[in-house]
Amino acid sequence: MTSRERLRLALEHGEPDRVPVDNNGIVSNIHEVAYKNLIDYLGFKEEIVILDPVQRIVMASEDVLRTLMVDTRYIYPNAPSWWRYEESGDGTWIDEFGAKYKRVGFYADCVDSPLKGKSLEEVKSYKLPDPTHASRFTGLKEKAKSLYESTDYALVSGAMICVDYLRWMIRGLEDSLMDLSANPDITDYLLDSIVDWMTAFGGALLEEIGEYIEFFWVGDDWGMQQGPFYSPEAFRRIFKQRLAKLIEHLKTKTKAKCAYHCCGSVYWVIEDMIEIGVDILHPIQPSASGNEDTAKIKREFGDRICFHGGTNNQSLFHGNLIDLQVDTLERIKDLALGGGYIFSSGHNIQANCPPENIIGLVDVAKRFGKYPIDFEMIDKEIERLRALKR
């Protein structure tokens, strides 16, 4: 099957020739350090291009994407014409919304927010940048059409459309959390303004590329390691209908599926995700509370939503290759049956993941992700690998 056929069938809960692979984009990519180690290991000579200066992930080359069997190619919106990434000597820069970031170790943190400490009146005087300025989308339709017609890859929108994350960045995390109870008027105003902005931006983007892509991304982190970031009641009261409104509008612009990125504990919110129109959930972090039993998650929800990732990036990728491969085999065993599964590293491959582990991850998908899934072969391989550690 072609990559496009493979992904389409999986998203319709069918079984293609093998699980599609999507180590690409904003949330299943590779940190620049791990990428440098990988291309050195593979003997590739290339310039490293940074895709996201906050997470320090890369724009992977075609050589690397083919080596990792990646079935997707992403179409990214342009930076607006009035803004460009300019890092100062102290490692700081300002994004187009006025939030200030600083390089800290392997990543960058938001260190100042334009609406931090501001009153409701001051918040209302703040103007978000133009979401539909033509410079954001110049050439995207032509690029998407060309890729669609000249390749067999599954095309995906590269924008991460978010609501609460942007509120955190422009208001500051501490004030954003306090506002939920102390300043609900500010919360409501900002969330409604951001939903309007993302609706306009996402709608304009999908008008350009929507006919060529297989899915688009929306995302916010509603989970922490041990449970919900907010109480389920607060999520449903404050955020759920706003997200439903946003996703409903985006789906009027395209037949593509909606993929939702949500780190941490997500078991409690999967039914909500289905209800608001989410078709694909990522990354199903198995080390977070409630997510440990991926077989149970597949049984309960797998006929109504697709899963993307599921591998234990947080705990195992930087460690022993055998442990990583055993875990990955178990995720394929749990999530791949009946389709509805996209294989990936879960979240972005971090700086401390050795290249041998990246290749070992792909090897598992190549050998054991073929349909029909051979559960007996997987069980035998798990037992063989475990025996090597005894």
Q: What are the key terms here?
A:
single chain, 390 residues, alpha/beta, TIM Barrel, 7-stranded parallel β-sheet, 3-stranded antiparallel β-sheet
Largest sheet: 7 strands, parallel
How do the helices and strands follow one another from N- to C-terminus? HHEEHEEEEHHEHHHEHEHEHEHHEHH
What CATH calls the topology is TIM Barrel
> How much helix is in the residues?
40-55%
Record the strand order, biggest sheet: 3-7-8-9-10-11-12
Strands, count: 12
Mean pLDDT: 97
User: How many individual domains?
Assistant: 1
Can you give a write-up of this model?
There is one protein chain. With 390 residues, the chain is an alpha/beta fold. The chain has one domain: TIM Barrel (Alpha-Beta Barrel), CATH 3.20.20. It is built from 15 helices and twelve strands. It has helices at residues 3-11, 32-42, 62-67, 120-125, 140-150, 164-171, 173-182, 184-209, 232-251, 270-275, 294-301, 313-316, 321-335, 355-368, 375-389; strands at residues 50-52, 57-58, 72-75, 92-94, 100-104, 107-112, 154-161, 215-219, 257-261, 280-282, 306-308, 341-342. The strands form three sheets. The chain has a seven-stranded parallel beta sheet with strand order 3-7-8-9-10-11-12. A three-stranded antiparallel beta sheet has the order 4-5-6, with no helix packed on it. It has a two-stranded antiparallel ribbon with strand order 1-2. Helix 6 crosses helix 7. The longest helix has 26 residues, at 184-209. The radius of gyration is 21 Å and the shape is globular.
